[in-house]
Amino acid sequence: MKKLTILLLLLCATLSVGAQAVFEPVELTIDSPTGLYSAGEQVTVYGQLREECTTPLALSVMVNGTTIAKQQNIALTTEARTPIWTGSFNEASSVILSVGPQGDHKNLTTIGFVVAAEQFTPSFNKPRDLEKFWRKQIRRMRRSSTEITLVSVDVPQKWADKYVCYDLEISMPEGAPVRGYIAYPREAADRSLPITIFAHAAGVRKAHCQSTPERALQWASRGGGAIALDINAHGYLNGQPQSYYDGLEEGALKDYSKWPLTDHQSFYFRTMFLRLVRALDYATRSSMWDGERVLIYGESQGGAQAAALAGIDKRVTMAVLNVPAMTDLGCVVAGHSAGWPRTYSQGAATEPTAALYQQILPYYDAAQLLGLTKAKLVVEVGLIDRTCPPEGVCATFNNSPSTDKTLLSFPYRPHTSVNARYRKEWRERVEDVRNSIIDAYLQ
């Protein structure tokens, strides 16, 4: 992709007052609620002061996470929206504009947009044996005997009359077992329920990394009911004291996403992906499964798992990926900034390592794996997300041959939760739309 000459904004209208208080006087807007534009279409970004501010402000514009062409000072008022940047792009571009106090690169008011989202393509070529590689991994796993442990857990009162829940463990021939929770309606008829799988975001010790009965029960009660699995990413024990998870993060699982690669088998995420297949093997044996619908849902690392399972297991009929990780793992080749876990950028320092990583990573790239599925897709992209950048997410979305896919975008969505100022709009435009699609599918 040829270099674009553009303005870049690295600023923010957030001024700290005291230790905790935050002063954020600037409102940034664009004329597209989705933040998506066509090639050549003019884009105008507006700024307005929410309240009087005497601090000098600066504006910057960043393209594809790597190019900062220029910074400039700006003046805004509370009276009206002021155009602070106008431009257009003739090729696929992800642009982030920021406004804030001059010299402050941390506290920024930020907005993003994407031009020609449909033109982003994966940086790696699809390996010729991609499907064969994963079929081999799955066959090898299935040759081993399967030991299943189910332990009944107490169901909160609001679900107790209608649902059951179990702490689930399924043995694996290598790596940690499948561990999580499974829940389903008490009196479901044979062949009446879809299967849902909840896959977790990155990390070890935090609450969002751990499976819970409540989450399994929430999914079991969606739509017309479901066989719901909440599978933790690492296969560790469920329901343990916090010290157990703290110890894993500081010990056995410390920096797991950065462990070095030596060959195809050594990548940490290989067994993480295979555990999902193992869990689905178990769930599909249930007489309650309708024999058709399998939905997997995940955010960030969970989105990578959703892409992987949809790609390597044809039983998946719907995948929901929220700001997914591991998208276009070779994006530095195209001159874009790397997304989580940034494996390739770490290994590109020396040519032998870079060559090895280029051989291995395409087999785990969400962009390549999602290219193997025609399942129904819902993908969320955050237009100010630099953990899982829009360039990679759009390339991943575009590479799927699915004819039933929805891209949900939001100009103020970072990788973490949306700023409270924009949360209501995000819920209406993204979360509510996604939930309605999911619930309709699960009816």
Q: Can you tell me about this structure?
A:
This protein has 443 residues and is α/β, with parallel strands linked by helices. The chain has 2 domains: 15-119, Macroglobulin (MG2) domain (Immunoglobulin-like, Sandwich); 130-442, 3-Layer(aba) Sandwich (Rossmann fold), CATH 3.40.50.1820. 25% of the residues lie in helices and 27% in strands. It has 11 helices and 19 strands. The protein has helices spanning 130-142, 157-160, 213-220, 242-250, 269-283, 301-312, 343-347, 351-360, 366-370, 390-399, 423-442; strands spanning 15-17, 21-23, 26-30, 36-37, 43-49, 57-63, 67-74, 82-87, 93-101, 109-115, 148-152, 163-170, 178-185, 193-199, 227-231, 289-299, 318-322, 376-382, 405-410. The strands form 4 sheets. A 9-stranded mixed beta sheet has the order 11-12-13-15-14-16-17-18-19, with helices on both faces. Strands 4-10-9-6-7 form a 5-stranded mixed beta sheet, with no helix packed on it. Helix 3 (213-220) links the parallel strand 14 (193-199) and strand 15.
What are the defining features of this structure?
443 residues; alpha/beta; Immunoglobulin-like; Rossmann fold; 2 domains; nine-stranded mixed β-sheet; five-stranded mixed β-sheet; globular; disordered N terminus
CATH architectural category of the largest domain: 3-Layer(aba) Sandwich
Number of domains: 2
CATH superfamily of the largest domain: Alpha/Beta hydrolase fold, catalytic domain
Query: What does the radius of gyration come to?
Result: 23 Å
Given the C-alpha coordinates, what overall shape results? Answer: globular
The structure class reads alpha/beta
Question: For the record, what CATH class of the largest domain applies?
Answer: Alpha Beta
